[in-house]
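Hi there. Long-time user, first ticket. I'm pasting a complex I've been working with (about 640 residues overall). I'd like to know whether the download I got is complete or cut off, because the file seemed smaller than I expected. Thanks.
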Amino acid sequence: MALLSGGLSFLVTIATIGCIYGLLTLGLNVHYGYTGLLNFGHVAFFAAGAYTSAIVTMPPPSTVTNASYEIWFNLPMPFGFPVSLAAAAVVGGLLAFLIGLTSVRLGTHYLAIATFALAGVFSDVLVNEAWLTNGSFGMNSVPKPARAMLSADAWQLAYLGFAVATLAGTYLVLTRLMDAPFGRLLKGVRESEPAAKTLGKDANVVKLKSFVIGGMIAGLAGGIYAHYLGSVVTAQFVPHVTFTVWAAMLLGGAASNTGAVAGAFLVVAFEESTRFITTLYNWIQSVLPEVLSGILPALFGPLPNNPSFIPSMRFVVIGILFVLVVRYRPEGLFGDPAEIDALGEED
Amino acid sequence: MVLDNLLQTVVFGLIEGSVIAVGAVGLTLSYGVTRFINFAYGEFLTYGAYLTVFLAAGLFGSSLPLPVAAVVAIVLVGLLGVAVSRVFFEPISQRGALPLLITSIGVSFILRNMLQGWVGVSAKQLPVPLMRRQDYFGLVRLTDLELGVIVVGVVTMLAIHLLLQRTMLGKRMRATSGNRSLAEVAGIDTTNVVRQTWFISAAAGALSGVLYAVLFSPFRPVVGFEYLIVIFAATLLGGIGRPYGAMLGALFIGLAMNFGSTYLSANYTRAYAFLILVGVLLVRPEGIRGGEF
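Hi, the file is complete. Here it is re-exported in full:
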């Protein structure tokens, strides 16, 4: 069977990454959208899940080049796959529990900084504790479940199917949960902590629960990511991930699960498609008639010619997205303005 | 020997504490009048360091001597701070802390990646000479540059102290910080005060970036963003919005980081800063120094 043709294969990749970011955004939305918790360290839960999946499924170090990790469980595929994902979610939740224990009771700014910094510390741990994580070289032999039974294309599609199903399942569970009394409790704490306390609810416990739920979803996303790429490297888990997820949530609309998923797909599609800008440029240049061929180089000539220019501009656009959404459309594409008003009432 | 090592670590802690203190005071001053934590603050450090390198290498035709280049860079970054405030923050200043905070993340992305797109990710270095450490009192050893960093740090702290206590601007800043609408009623042009504070805050950030670059060359466009955690730690430790607290917090964090990397493991420098902070927050959520400034 031929490989999926270029465009289609690209769409499948975007869709799979989109599902993974969709999960991450749903998780963050539980924190910020529904509970009002400023979590700027979301990438830590994602990384915790990805590394957990890698550790429980990596083959013995003797069979891997450049291995320095000392803990591995080598769970067989495909039956170890659900176990690995469950472990990823549990560890993501556990990390959220630990970080939350120290920080959820802090006020807005303190919480934002505490989560941001704890995620930085966590990433230092990932880089330095090579016995656990293989250091900055990364874990590059994470098995792809059922890869041996399927052709390359069939596997890509099957994995996409699995990612979509997980995203849909999580979406449904969260939607039910947010309509349930527990969801109203989260929003209650978001809107008025004193009121929740008056009704006999322990706001800190509620926040901690919210933190753990979001962390578990992010951990699950990490597990799916690890088995999709087959490798887990510290350089994948930088603060940019956290803020990409934030951009997705703000664009889609905080406190809207539909918005979270839509925002994630839009942001991922944008980020992934910018890598074709050079191809597009060359194509336009090649079809332009001779007379006009000087226009594009004249227009873009003054731009710096370094390889990080386009990737950097991608993040400039993400930054502008933050600014514009907050200023002109705080409810995002699918959010409810009333919910955002409630979010704004801090201190 | 043990004592020498201990003293030397204390001195290194003081040196890095000076760098942190300049940055933390700048951050905390802007918090005082704007009431939000500026995640774009790290970019002021980065721009300070990079502009100094470029000016010293002849960005405007002739290359400036390093100290002149640093001063010009600091002033330019101060103006950048005012511009950033006018373009991004003033239009939404009535909407509360949260939109401002989130906007500042966007601003940090814009500034950092504009620079990175322009200059690339390769590391840059200030043209400072490599120096030999000299003995002082037969106890500690440090280079003239390190000594200079401490002096600049102390002078800056003194200048900020005099600014706040002895000048009209300082009084207006304190009034605006204490109660903005009351200051307004008293006839203070608070919009102007906020802009002046942005200038001072961004300039202090740039100075901190230059000091950092003097001590720890080479650096990349992410330098300020990565150091932001450390500055946050000092700021929070002192209680946000409290300049004297930030100075104290910075010394504490500088010492903690250097003691940690000397006696425990050099891989976790940032982690020490942070673990101390979390420890303090658990006991005293308002930081080590209460009260208004």
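A couple of notes from our side: Chain B has one domain: 2-283. Chain B touches chain A through 47 residues (CB under 8 Å).
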